Task: inverse folding
C-alpha cells in the first residue's frame, strides 16, 4: 500500500506542477495579453464545447457553486464572450451560451496551446509526445469516470 500511496502522491504533484507550468508559460510572439483568468477560460471553453448550458449544470461541470459560476458568467458577459438566453426547449429557463467572440477567443487560446505543444514535441520527440498524449488521454478518461466520486 505504501507504494501505491507514494505513486499517488507523485502523480498528484506531477499533475499540479504541469498545470502550473502551463499557466505560467510566457506569451509566444504574436500572442495577445490574456484577459481571462484560468477559471474564466475553462468556463468559456466548457460553453464552447458543451453548447447552451443551464447555470446549475455549468456549475456542476466546473465543480463549483452556482454563485461562483454566475459571477464567472457575469464577467464573460461583460467581456462580450458569453450571454444568457432563454432556453429554446423550456422557455421558463435560462441557458448560458458562448458568443461568436467567445468562440473566436477559445479557438485562439487552443491555437496558442498547440503552438506551445509543438515546441515541446520538438524537444521531446514525436514518439514520446504521442505516448504522453495517450497517457494524458487515459488520465483524463479516468478522471471523467470518477468525477462524481467523493
Result:
Amino acid at each position: 500500500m505504501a507504494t501505491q500511496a507514494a505513486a499517488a502522491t507523485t502523480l498528484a504533484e506531477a499533475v499540479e506542477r504541469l498545470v502550473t507550468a502551463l499557466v505560467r508559460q510566457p506569451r509566444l510572439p504574436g500572442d495577445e495579453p490574456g484577459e481571462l483568468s484560468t477559471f474564466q477560460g475553462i468556463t468559456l471553453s466548457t460553453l464552447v464545447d458543451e453548447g447552451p448550458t443551464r447555470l446549475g449544470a455549468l456549475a456542476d461541470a466546473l465543480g463549483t457553486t452556482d454563485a461562483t459560476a454566475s459571477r464567472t458568467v457575469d464577467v464573460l458577459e461583460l467581456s462580450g464572450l458569453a450571454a444568457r438566453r432563454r432556453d429554446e426547449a423550456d422557455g421558463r429557463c435560462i441557458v448560458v451560451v458562448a458568443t461568436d467572440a467567445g468562440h473566436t477567443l477559445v479557438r485562439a487560446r487552443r491555437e496558442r496551446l498547440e503552438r506551445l505543444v509543438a515546441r515541446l514535441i520538438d524537444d521531446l520527440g514525436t514518439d514520446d509526445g504521442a505516448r504522453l498524449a495517450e497517457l494524458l488521454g487515459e488520465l483524463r478518461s479516468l478522471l471523467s469516470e470518477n468525477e462524481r466520486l467523493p
Residues 100-124 form the longest helix (25 residues). The longest strand covers residues 82-86.
